[in-house]
Specification:
Layout (H helix, E strand, L loop, with lengths): L3 E5 L6 E5 L4 E5 L2 H7 L4 E6 L4 E5 L4 E5 L5 E5 L5 E6 L4 E4 L13 E3 L32
Parallel strand pairs: 3-10
Antiparallel strand pairs: 1-2, 2-5, 3-4, 4-9, 6-7, 7-8, 8-9
Length: about 140
């Protein structure tokens, strides 16, 4: 039996459905994520793209692509961040706060070299991205 989660933007105009378990969860410290979210660190939850669908309000979903590879989705009505599609990377990042019933279990920090908020939580800290995802795979001290 498949695990199904639902989520929505701040105003409720956009609703999403997610099937299955996340591939990974953690924290990102990169400049782009911090600027996009207006926070010192962002949380991520990655799913296969085919596991994520918009079930309500697709016409309200806007998209912004700053880097050419990360298509950030948001609600045009309330401005709420929803998810990021990263074509070619094999995942869609649905922001954990959008999915109220998601039990967020972070496993690592990525782009910790860029951190402006150090978090001594005992989780692995990667300089950038895991090697299998195109990064250096180098770990950093807390």
């Amino acid at each position: 039996m498949s695990n199904t989660l639902t989520g929505h933007c701040f105003c409720g105009a956009v609703e999403i459905r997610i099937e299955g378990e996340p591939m990974a969860m953690g924290y990102c410290h990169c400049d782009d994520c911090r600027k996009w979210s207006a926070t010192p660190v962002t949380a991520f939850a990655l799913w296969p793209p085919e596991s994520v669908s918009i079930t309500k309000g697709e016409e309200q979903v806007g998209s912004y692509c700053h880097t050419g590879s990360n298509h950030r989705k948001f609600c045009r009505q309330c401005g709420s961040n929803l998810m990021s599609h990263v074509p070619g990377a094999g995942f869609t990042d649905v922001y954990p706060a959008v999915v109220p019933r998601l039990e967020f279990k972070p496993a690592l920090h990525v782009y910790y070299e860029k951190s402006v908020l150090r978090i001594p939580d005992g989780l692995p800290k990667l300089r950038d991205f895991p090697a299998e995802m195109g990064g250096s795979g180098e770990f950093m001290p807390e």
